Amino acid sequence: MAKGNHKINKTGMTLSVKFEAVDDPEVIRFTHLQNGSTWSGEYLSREEYADREHILGQSELGQLHKSGDHIDRFEDNAKHLGIKHFVLKDLTLPETSKTSQIVASCETMNRVGWVMVPGSEEITPVLTACVGGVFTLKHHRGRGYAKKMIDQLNHMYDSLSESSDDPFLKYMTIDLYSEVDEYYSRNGFVSYHVPVYEIHQLAALETRYCDALGQANKSPVRTLGYNDYEDLVELQRQQFRKQMVEYNDGSKFLFTVKPTLETYMWFEDRDIFVSKKFHEEKPIRFGAALSDGSHIVWHHSWTSHSLYIIKVYIATGETQNADNALASLLKEAVKECHLTKLTYLEFWQDEIPPETFPVFYSTLRQVESGHNLSKVNHSLSAIRLSPSCQKYKDECLWLNNTKYCWF
Ligand SMILES: CC(C)(COP(=O)(O)OP(=O)(O)OC[C@H]1O[C@@H](n2cnc3c(N)ncnc32)[C@H](O)[C@@H]1OP(=O)(O)O)[C@@H](O)C(=O)NCCC(=O)NCCS
Nearest-CA neighbor of 243 among 131, 400, 348, 361? Predict the structure, then answer.
């Protein structure tokens, strides 16, 4: 890992820091206990927050490097998948324990993405590192540690990318969801804002959209459990691939995170962990599907009292039918809100594109308060391309940039 190095920071002080990958569970728990001061929220203690992060780290997504399928597919490169933890140490601090010099930490959730490089007709699987948990200990803030840590993280992944001619690494991407606005633009990330919508007027939505249009779908609705809908995720993958080919005009760097059941299960693990604070029974319905394969996947966001729509897949391409199918799926989402005592629906605009669902958006404008529509997303997505793809950074099109690939 990176050696200790020196750099003058913006306050004119010399930073003597060391960036390290960590896999010691005690050190990782230390970082999560620190992070808990910002992210545990009002319902979890810092210990519970650290427990949740541990469970998510042990999930199939977090342990993707151990998946037989991925080892078969990516061989030695499979080791780069899954959750990775990092710390920044200030070497001028006394070394009295294994955590005493830590001033900042972060992690990356490394998954498979798909890219199409300009001039190519191929959809190429690539390593996609999503940065999260960027945190500087409170009394060390404002000294350039986070900037330095993300620079070092970029450098580490750039070196990995440059070390190989395998397109999986050569064309890799780093992305993140910033809670600190444009902070990461100083580390070379380019932001893409996706507006958020909230629907509080559930009764009006149900009457004027779900019941008015959903009549066309009389088929029984299938409920999605914890991990029983791989067939539906396969439909998402087929649609994403088709969409990439359609968007490819040879001039853009196209990128999307590959949808996988592991990604949805990661959301479900989070959901089930936090549900204990609100209900005795575990949640069991994580979405719904129609007989033609159209489906919706949701996340019970217990702490905000909302049902977050993380994926909508519509089997048909015809506009009228798309609205009909969405109406039936949202009826199930509204029902789930009632069953679980959640009060509103939330989604990112690109998940339900206005051009595909005109009736939905015209209904929303009639029934919902304007300030709940097209809101600023405080999770600002941003991406950074590998050294060999930097020349395409202004030509990058991030498809399906919605909550399902959030970390
Ligand atoms: C954001 C954070 C990691 C920055 O760490 P740091 O080591 O103090 O960062 P640096 O010294 O490199 O940079 C400080 C800059 O961050 C900016 N910053 C801090 N919090 C910010 C916020 N909420 N929004 C925008 N900018 C912010 C500061 O204004 C400062 O800007 P300046 O350089 O123009 O004066 C730290 O404040 C933190 O841990 N916050 C709580 C956790 C968090 O929100 N993490 C980000 C998750 S995406």
Answer: 400
Instruction: Tell me, in angstroms, the distance from the centre of ligand 1 to residue 156's CA.
Output: 21
Q: Where are the beta strands (DSSP E) in 241-395?
A: 253-257, 287-289, 295-301, 306-313, 344-348, 380-385
Atom of ligand 1 nearest to the CA of 184: 48
Q: What is the pLDDT of residues 173-194, one digit of tens each?
A: 999 999 999 999 999 999 999 9
Q: What mean pLDDT is predicted for residues 26-44?
A: 97
Of the CA atoms within 13 Å of residue 357, those in its CB half-sphere come to 25
Which domains are delineated in the chain?
Answer: 5-193+379-405 (3.40.630.30), 196-372 (3.40.630)
Distance in Å, CA 181 to ligand 1 centroid: 10
Q: Rounded to an integer, what distance in angstroms lies between the CA atom of residue 291 and that of residue 222?
A: 8
Amino acid identity at 48: E
Secondary structure of the chain: what % helix, strand, coil (to 5)?
45, 25, 30
Which helix (DSSP H) or strand (DSSP E) does residue 6 occupy?
strand 5-8
